[in-house]
Design a protein that fits this description.
- Two copies of one chain form a homodimer.
- Chain A is of the alpha+beta class and 370 residues long.
- Chain A has a domain of 127 residues: 60s Ribosomal Protein L30, Chain: A (2-Layer Sandwich).
- Chain A contains ten helices and 13 strands.
- In chain A, strand 4, helix 4 and strand 5 form a beta-alpha-beta unit.
- The first copy, chain A, is globular.
Chain lengths: 370, 370
């Protein structure tokens, strides 16, 4: 099985987005004005000028993970997923998240579902340290058949402090931050595999979900029991604001470990998997030779679906949700600092100047195109 | 016919939103910090602190107007609708729009539709004077059956310059800004009425759409011919950024007409119609005794659907998309200034202290609840 055959036509999506972008005009806000666009490579977050600061916006939704949440009537994590998809993108440019707004489209409003989503958004705001500045619920019975949840995050940074990848050089080391699970990408394929093997999401999980020490949030079972398969596949996306923003503040304020400039690039591993890293620099390459442990749900899904290894690394995070490229001489210090906040963080590879590729050395998988 | 019977259960929607809000916690950002929430009456835009400024976010979608756009394959106005719903909300707190992000959920990406939406968003950015700072296209065949388009606008204002309604007093005069048509609310009822009378949207419009001097955008017919009914019902929502922001800048910079403090409150007439004004002050009331001309599509829809007058004023803008409450001694000067930018603008009534009601005097309709 592969992602394309699970009902998502990536080429068509790419050409639709290209059509939209091709139809866009230049900004009406001139350089130097508040609101003028700031071009950065990577494009994880959209940046605009605002006096001595830059403001960043990111917008994204939870996607088809919502269909599993709906199937299990387990909405406690989706607000966290929605927040994570957005604020983790802001982190990639070095922006500190400030505020969030949610958009919920439903065929028919359901107060219980809304209360659960509200509670999940509240927890997400605490994890991402943002204010929920508003939201919209739209009843659209002719357009949506199930809940759709998306949102927009606003962040800021000081002018001159954007993380752009400009400083990236061969020899920089890659620090991987562990994922909490599938996060919020690849669920069309996940659902197809679950259907294929006739999986019952309320069954006890058929693999040891705690093998890597990762915690699984319980929607159904007690913490003392083994989690269900549904709980594992719905585990909320990790929000990386605490370790990354605290690291950036610490480096900027203390000047230790080479200061903030030691952090050369940050990649959020979302749809596209490891190929996301290609967005961060136009020519340099990335070699992952000591990856973080693969979470057991990925191994189980690969076997259950007979998915090619390259397809797995192009569709899923495989256990690493974020990558920091750090000046080599300070990488050990940065890792030690991060490990105290996020156990499981480790050096996974290095930046190379042998072509614009991402190579996952243990599996031999290589990506040359995003 | 009424709005509730057209498939939108307003009570259920209200209780779902109340459930969500009830589940929300306090912000983690303390007063004085960037991102701390700023409470304002009305709640049109969510405000946060940002140094000497406040930032405002508004999020909203086009709603079921999209189903008519889809039916006619006429996407040229929906980006303007989406922008208008958001930036017009920002204007209500006195925030100048800076940037916008769009979210498009589709069952299957279509490059032609995306190109048309992109062109419409570009025009919308020009009309609203904002930078398109990003966007997301989600393919969600299991969740949406047609295009859903929503977005988020970011605006700013100087601290201390928020338009809060605090200064509002009995005797302030109401200035109405003319609507361009149905704008983006009430389309479930519009669609029900169109079905009821078996209307053919490609027919020439059965009423004189130009009666009030309002221009109708042509998706199908030439400008010299009469517009179709479809073109009239899809006419894009008016974006009020030009007249309102230029007015606020002019008042602030020149100090003329009492300065910016002459503008006591601004209301965006959306779903809820005139009852929206009740959000702007907890005790004062509003009397509209000289309304702007009712646009002919409202009269036609009311007759075709046998809709009660009160229901019309609770569901539609009826020809007035925005209301400014202005200090009485400067209202004539402000109207004269606005009429040069937006013909059709006029004084429509006054603020009263005889109870928390909105009264539309010519029809006798009164609202006491939002």
């Amino acid at each position: 099985m592969d992602y394309a055959s699970s009902g998502v036509d990536l080429d068509l999506e790419g050409s639709a987005v290209a059509s939209l972008i091709g139809a866009l005009g230049r900004s009406v806000r001139a350089p130097g004005q508040p609101g003028a666009p700031v071009d950065l490579p990577g494009g994880f977050g959209g940046l605009i000028e605002f006096g001595d600061h830059l403001l960043a916006l990111a917008t994204d939704g939870v996607g088809s993970k919502l269909q599993l949440a709906s199937h299990l009537n387990a909405w406690g994590g989706v607000g966290i997923d929605c927040m994570a998809m957005n604020v983790n993108d802001l982190l990639c440019v070095g922006a500190e998240p400030l505020a969030f707004v949610d958009y919920i489209a439903v065929p028919k409003p359901d107060p219980e579902v809304h209360a659960a989503i509200g509670a999940s958004l509240t927890e997400a705001c605490r994890l991402a340290r943002v204010t929920l500045a508003g939201g919209e619920t739209a009843s659209l019975p002719g357009i949506v058949t199930e809940v759709d949840l998306s949102g927009t995050a606003l962040g800021f940074l000081k002018r001159g402090e954007a993380i752009t990848g400009e400083l990236l050089q061969a020899g920089d080391l890659l620090i991987g931050l562990p994922a909490s699970g599938l996060h919020s990408n690849g669920y069309s394929l996940v659902r197809r595999i679950l259907d294929h093997v006739n999986a019952d999401l309320s069954d006890i999980c058929p693999f040891d979900a705690a093998a890597t020490g990762r915690a699984v949030r319980r929607f159904v079972t007690d913490a003392d029991d083994a989690p269900t398969l549904g709980e594992v596949v719905l585990n909320p996306t990790r929000i990386y604001v605490d370790p990354v923003i605290d690291l950036l503040h610490h480096l900027a304020e203390s000047g230790e470990l080479g200061g903030r400039r030691s952090i050369r690039a940050i990649g959020h591993i979302t749809g596209g998997g490891l190929s996301n890293l290609l967005r961060l620099h136009p020519t340099l390459g990335w070699v992952i030779d000591a990856p973080l442990p693969v979470l057991p749900e990925f191994t189980w899904l690969q076997e259950a679906g007979g998915v090619a290894t390259k397809e797995m690394y192009r569709t899923f995070n495989m256990g690493m949700g974020m990558v920091l490229a750090v000046a080599a001489e300070h990488a050990n210090g940065v890792v030690a600092w991060l490990q105290r906040r996020l156990p499981g963080t480790d050096i996974v590879g290095a930046v190379h100047d042998a072509g614009h590729h991402v190579t996952h050395a243990p599996s031999g998988v290589t990506f040359s195109h995003y």
